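ARCHIVE RECORD
Type: protein–small molecule complex
Small molecule: magnesium ion
Source of inputs: curated submission
Record status: active
Notes field left blank by submitter.
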Amino acid sequence: MSAIKYSIVIPVYNEEEVIHTTYHRLTEVMKSTGEAYELLFVNDGSHDKTADILIQYSQQDSSVMLLDFARNFGHQIAITAGMDYAKGDVVVVIDADLQDPPELILQMIDKWKQGYDVVYAKRTKRKGESYFKKHTAAMFYRLLRSMTDIEIPLDTGDFRLLDRKVCDQMKLLQEKNRFVRGLVSWVGFKQIALEYERDERAAGESKYPLKKMLKLSLDGLTSFSYKPLKLATYTGVALSFIGFVYLIIVLYLKLFTDNTIAGWSSLIVIQLLFSGFTLVILGMIGEYIGRIYDEAKNRPLYIVRKTYKQQPIRKFAHRE
Ligand code: UDP
Ligand code: MG
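STRUCTURE (tokenized, with ligand):
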């Protein structure tokens, strides 16, 4: 058997409606390369028929491998597991819902042949996604950029090609709350963007509800920036300064004038503002401490229930 050249990592969570089409389109594209490839599906604890369908494919097609997680660990962890198990000289991560067109993989491979180590797909348009999702995502990427020191490309998801050496470096980064696209930027090497228009989901619904989007953005921010923590310090200094000026004014009024200040409403406003602010800062510190706690527990990132892969056919049959 020839060594695997291309590994395609596909995280899947309840994708029974689209998985057949995805398998066929990916197979068509990868066959056209004429090289040995593997389709490495990571089933992230689906409750529907996704796993059964993929087990079948893994029995029929020796290019298919399935990692079946013991439960839902999340998209970023599923990608990480795929990278850990991938054997190819090149690893491509792609969503299962065909929002990322498989045909673009060929262009990525061209760039790789020109000597690039990371080819990431940058979205120029996002079709069929809600106004809310598009705009919050765009804002998030810009906020993240303003807060971090490393260059994390704008409007870029996890659809990308990695050279074997980049993938090997990624495996050394064992942090628990992962923002994979940030980690790839952090690793460095020769990176290039490939622009594309993001299609609609071919079937089914988004598996990224608001809660998961928030978790992902907080992981991105906290893993790559301390600035939110510093916000407390800066605001504290500014408020102390204002407080000091106000103190002088109050003292002046008290000592040199007869004005008695009836200030109930202003007191309430100040009280509400500051206690709100204090809670926000405490929450922010909590986000960091929770993540430090995760690191301290040092649990494995994921648990694989079973892997499915056809055994390679032996070259020599047993003698009777
Ligand atoms: N996914 C996953 N685990 C999850 C959520 C999503 O493996 O907990 C997979 C999903 O099957 C898909 C990819 O991650 O292949 C991206 O998810 P989705 O398309 O739902 O996200 P969106 O494009 O809506 O942001
Ligand atoms: Mg999608």
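CURATOR ANNOTATION: The first helix runs from residue 19 to 31.
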